[in-house]
């Protein structure tokens, strides 16, 4: 099986017209210029001031003119490559393919052996990386949960567990702060070979969350500048929660979220013109009765697709959102509904990279077999979006003539060849058992497949020298940053 | 040389190449090979391998059917060449058909292919066959097993007629009757006096073996 099977869609979905897109962009520019975004970082404020932005040093709010924004973003590449550390693992972010990754940042794990929920740990990150390494639906790996057994160094240990267990591209969503970011850059250099190779084929990229409304996280911003300078692709993700941290209308949420993301991308370009960056925006709705966060809701699906269009309108690739919905129970009606909407719509809109499968309870809970369900949904969509074959071979006129009325197609060579090309949803339609035993239920089958991959799949290991260097970097980080 | 052609015969069955299989069978005869050896050491290992590949999931149903077609094509060349006393070793002789008024073909064809792949000699009498057609075929072939397929609730009644007709012809002691088809159940098999029912072509083989050995 190929390591990665991206989605190439034959159909295109837009939820915003050109006029609507223009209206959101124009409102976003207005917010960046008139309302501003808070950047609580002295270095960031200095960079903005040097480039003529209006900086309020007391409130740390930066106001950006449309001219400054457009000039800065004109340096951002529209397409670039994210690399894995083995052949066949490159992600070409040029709008012609959608690559899905895993979900990440969880804090709880359904234990692999006991089935009981517990705090997540580094070994969870390692095990899931091995399974992700095997699944062709996964093109890049987000460390799925926090390595909570490593204290303050957890984020760097998550990278260590990831690089050691998958050849696929790794994207961190946790290594923040200038100090830790420098160690992450060194780890990426070791994986790539050296600084220049890392720049040309980055094995690591970074996603940084903004703080809604209209704010940035100091640690995130400072890390982002380090990454951008090193040539590691950096994305910013806004997560406007309609009714709480954003207006209770999807349009307003898109404006607020875009202002957060675009202002951060401008900073990256001011610090390192031409740095590869990406845009990300995931909406949600505040439950008006409990203030909880609802992610399984149509407004969110709309925002996710609109975000793809907005990223492209600003001239950069997008990290779109799919999966990771509210439900707690895999193999349930709710998970099926929510994961299908999100995971189908964003590749149709042309999303370059998409996060991510394998988690439940709004991306907080790692349920081992969930990634097997999400893999099957992914491949269903991959086939669905390929469209239909109406070539002579696809129309099979000669075969229809040969079989004629009545009769059957089972004994036709055409049937034999084409049935082999048809992807089979093995989770819902497993191989029959010939030993007379009944098949286990679908959740057990998903778990059996997960266990089989974990037991049998051996990712290509890192060279011993590379492993040792990663360990040395972690030791140095422990000495400097404290364990 | 003879071993080569036997291996090629087996391979033609495994690859599902009916024309090649027939041609190779003719070549083998032309070279003076014993047709029984060709069957037992060429075709049988080939169809056994097809069955194995199917059981492990590597082969799909069309591979199985086309493999069966290749075996059939070679047998059509080899069987007429068997001398008087020679007989192909088979697990059992089976008459298979879809009952009167019913034109469904695929299920019964799959059962036939599976039985052939598992060492039974199968005569597929086709679809829309009366109870009398089944009886005539059993007599002619000396069958020990009958498979009657029905896909409609209206035609499944004719499965009972097949059982009754075999009884009237005095053949019921000699043959076991198995029935199948979407509306058919074990209860129905019991009710019409059949010896067994199977849900699909795979379990039909296990059932056929069980019915034969119970003899």
Key structural traits:
heterodimer, A: 483 residues, alpha/beta, TIM Barrel, 6-stranded mixed β-sheet, 4-stranded mixed β-sheet, B: 215 residues, Methyltransferase, Methionine Synthase (B12-binding Domains), Chain A, domain 1, Rossmann fold, 2 domains, 5-stranded parallel β-sheet, 5 strands, 13% strand
Question: Helix and strand layout, with pairings?
Answer:
The complex is a heterodimer of chains A (483) and B (215).
Chain A: H1 18-35, E1 37-38, H2 42-50, E2 54-56, E3 61-63, H3 66-73, E4 80-82, E5 91-93, E6 99-102, E7 108-110, E8 117-119, H4 122-134, E9 140-141, H5 154-165, E10 169-172, H6 178-192, H7 195-200, E11 204-211, E12 215-216, H8 218-230, E13 234-238, E14 241-242, H9 250-271, E15 277-281, E16 284-286, E17 293-294, H10 298-313, E18 319-321, H11 333-349, E19 353-357, E20 359-360, E21 365-366, H12 370-384, H13 392-395, H14 397-403, H15 413-421, H16 442-456, H17 464-481
Chain B: H1 2-15, H2 18-30, H3 35-55, H4 61-78, E1 93-99, H5 106-117, E2 121-129, H6 131-141, E3 145-149, H7 157-168, E4 176-180, H8 186-192, E5 196-197, H9 201-213
Describe the structure.
The complex is a heterodimer of chains A (483) and B (215). In chain A, the strands form six sheets. In chain A, strands 9, 10, 11, 12, 13 and 15 form a six-stranded mixed sheet that branches. With 483 residues, chain A is α/β, with parallel strands linked by helices. Chain A has two domains: 312 residues, Trimethylamine methyltransferase-like (TIM Barrel, Alpha-Beta Barrel), CATH 3.20.20; 30 residues, no CATH class. Chain B folds into two domains: 80 residues, Methyltransferase, Methionine Synthase (B12-binding Domains), Chain A, domain 1 (Orthogonal Bundle), CATH 1.10.1240; 121 residues, 3-Layer(aba) Sandwich (Rossmann fold). In chain B, 56% of the residues lie in helices and 13% in strands. Chain B has a five-stranded parallel sheet, sandwiched between helices. In chain B, β4, α8 and β5 form a beta-alpha-beta unit. The mean pLDDT of chain B is 92. Classes of the chains: A alpha/beta (483), B alpha/beta (215). At the A-B interface, α15 of A face α4, α5 and α9 of B.
